[in-house]
Amino acid sequence: MIESTPNLVLGEDGLARPLWASTNQLLRDYYDHEWGLPIYDEAELFERLSLEAFQAGLSWELVLRKRPAFRSAFADFDPDEVATFDNADIERLCSEPAIIRNRRKIEAVINNARATIDLREHGGLSQLIWSHRPAETPMPVLASDIPTQSPESQALARALKSHGFTFVGPTTMFALMGAIGVVDIHLLGAHRRGSSGVWR
Hints:
mainly alpha
């Protein structure tokens, strides 16, 4: 029987979750239904890539709470639409209180939309990201066992940068890889461990 620990919390539903996913319903729902599940669709990957960039230096909960506003502001993260944004759109977004008003990150999202389109001639965003799936995934027992980056996330960051992407450092890319199932960084004993179908 799994008991609550500093790393896993047993919910009222009898399911074990990491501490970060047990603090409120928003994070719990995200953990239970989204985090770590495989994503291959270009627009969905572009959204996750963009949100991870906005999260840098901030909390994921803040980004998650603002996700509906981000989707509205960035045309549901359609790369073809975002790629057309101009200086007027940048100024509009920098004045939008519902999102994170960081000019460099806003400019990075627009730049990365254009890079995503260009990447279609080289196999596409999904193929590039998933080609960096490692041979093995971490097996963390404690939250402190989860690495912040890996050789694969370092290689993915380099590959994306070579195609013109920005705000794609190895730590941000490792977080992305965990969020979209390229690696499984659920704690051993958590109810979502192995649920992606990618890793057992």
